[in-house]
Specification:
Blueprint: E1 7-9, H1 15-20, H2 24-27, H3 50-60, H4 71-95, H5 101-113, E2 116-117, E3 123-124, H6 128-140, H7 145-149, H8 168-180, E4 190-193, H9 196-200, H10 209-213, H11 223-231, E5 242-247, H12 250-253, E6 262-268, H13 285-291, H14 295-306, E7 318-327, E8 333-342, H15 359-379, E9 388-392, H16 404-415, E10 432-437, H17 440-450
Parallel strand pairs: 5-10, 6-8, 6-9, 9-10
Antiparallel strand pairs: 1-8, 2-3, 4-7, 7-8
Helix pairs in contact: 3-4, 4-5, 4-6, 15-16, 16-17
Pfam families: PARG_cat_microb
Protein name: Microbial-type PARG catalytic domain-containing protein
InterPro entries: CHP02452, Macro_dom-like, PARG_cat_microbial
């Protein structure tokens, strides 16, 4: 869709009236591409950290929780692809007459990081033969627990779009998908970041011998981000970074942004289920976004495309989606936005990843999450950020039970920090930052916390 179409109205005024007779199971037409080889996943070798690998290993080794969307299989694929890539790099290094000590140390260091602590505190190394056997069993198992819950048997791709529903919110969102995304999202509109280090790697700089050896340094979907960061380096972006507090739903706030501006919004996402409680008509921020846009298709395209039939948002990373389309229910106006698909810890009940053991660890790990999605917004800004609106909010402070003041303080800290090569606070990479929430009391807390920023 062209830039000029960011805010427009459908000429067909029958969008809402068609819903009255619309049966999604009978009339919803969609196509999808053949799923790629899951083991062909991009591995950001130069950006790997000990904490990231520990996170993945611990999640893969946890057999206690129901795996609703093959989340563990998705993470296991990453490990197997990483092991294969390290073996390839080792062979290349051994075949060379001269190889720097730095490269050898890096490959050895990554191997040393591939250790995890099981529930009895014992440190273990992965048994790659066992992991490969486990993966083969998982791929042979065609049963998806979510599909089983809805009465299905052998899982088929995109079954989520064929489940019979009787609620107008879900049927309306399917109509939106049918209208704008019958063929789904393009591969370059769907991005997956494992940590902030992967995003920092996109910034222009002189490549070291190690980085040249570990090519490619970025996923093909990030070609546009790399070019944008080259054309408009972050150190040159020095905008006001004006912070505004908006007390209304995100599905309404997007239509208040100037029509020619780029919007990047934060979705408070479920880390192991595309759309969280979308199919049971839950009513959190993520589901509200999906009921009012075509964004649910993007999450399914992530699941059946980049994630090989499973779904897992990285603990210290996120997914990034370009060009989701919001629909105004009353005026039929539509608006394009980009979406940060990120998650927060669920206090009191661990999800896919282990919860932090204490407040200090919680702050460290949650800051890593925030660093990643703010860096992703910076990397995917169009132009120099002077016409970009970043829509954030009190992520994790609803059903997940995180303290509003704690989350507000982390936002203040991360937006005041330097990253991506900035000379000053990273909030200055954007013209406007909105904190959007339906609860006025939460916005008041955020405003009080941010009032302590020294200008």
């Amino acid at each position: 869709m062209e830039e000029s179409d960011r805010s427009t109205a459908f000429g067909d005024s029958s969008l809402n009236t068609n819903l009255q007779s619309y049966s999604t199971t009978d009339h919803f037409n969609f196509t999808y591409q053949t799923m790629p080889d899951p083991l062909a996943v991009y591995i950001p070798v130069a950006s790997l950290t000990k904490s990231l690998l520990c996170s993945i290993l611990c999640a893969v080794s946890n057999h206690e929780r129901i795996d609703w969307n093959h989340s563990r299989r998705t993470l296991l694929v990453f490990l197997l692809a990483l092991n294969k890539r390290l073996e390839e790099l080792k062979e290349i290094a051994n075949a060379r007459d001269k190889i720097s000590d730095q490269i050898t140390r890096k490959l050895d260091e990554i191997r040393q990081w591939l250790v995890y602590e099981d529930h009895d505190g014992t440190c273990r190394e992965p048994n790659w033969n066992e992991l490969r056997e486990t993966y083969q069993k998982m791929t042979a198992d065609k049963v998806d627990d979510t599909w089983t819950y809805y009465g299905g048997h052998k899982t088929k791709p995109y079954y989520e779009l064929t489940i019979s529903v009787s609620h107008p919110d879900i049927e309306r969102s399917r109509l939106y998908m049918d209208c704008t995304r019958p063929n789904g999202f393009q591969s370059d509109e769907l991005k997956l970041y494992w940590n902030a280090e992967q995003l920092e790697q996109l910034c222009p700089k002189a490549e070291s011998q190690l980085e040249k050896f570990l090519q490619p340094l970025y996923d093909p979907s990030d070609a546009d981000a790399v070019e944008a960061l080259r054309q408009h380096p972050v150190w040159q972006r020095n905008h006001h970074g004006k912070i505004t507090y908006v007390t209304k739903g995100i599905e309404k706030a997007v239509f208040d942004v100037p029509k020619d501006a780029q919007i990047i919004l934060l979705s408070f996402a479920d880390e192991q289920s595309p759309g969280g409680g979308y199919l049971i008509r839950a009513w959190t921020q993520e589901e509200i976004i999906l009921y009012n846009s075509d964004a649910y298709r993007s999450l399914l395209d992530l699941k059946y495309g980049r994630m090989g039939g499973g779904y897992a948002i990285p603990e210290f990373g996120l997914a990034y989606v370009r060009n989701i389309c919001f629909f105004h229910r009353d005026t039929q106006e539509r608006r394009l936005t980009d979406m940060l698909v990120a998650n927060c810890y669920c206090i009191g009940a661990a999800e896919l990843y282990r919860n932090p053991k204490n407040k200090t660890e919680w702050k460290e790990k949650t800051l890593a999450k925030f660093h990643a999605f703010i860096a992703a917004a910076v990397a995917n800004t169009k132009g120099d950020g002077s016409n970009t609106y970043l829509l954030l909010g009190p992520i994790g402070t609803g059903a997940f039970g995180n303290d509003v003041q704690d989350i507000a303080k982390l936002f203040r800290e991360i937006l005041q920090s330097k990253m991506m090569g900035s000379n000053g606070p990273i909030r200055q990479a954007f013209s406007n930052i909105w904190f959007v929430c339906t609860d006025a009391w939460k916005n008041k807390i955020f405003e009080e916390i941010f009032s302590k920023i020294e200008v």
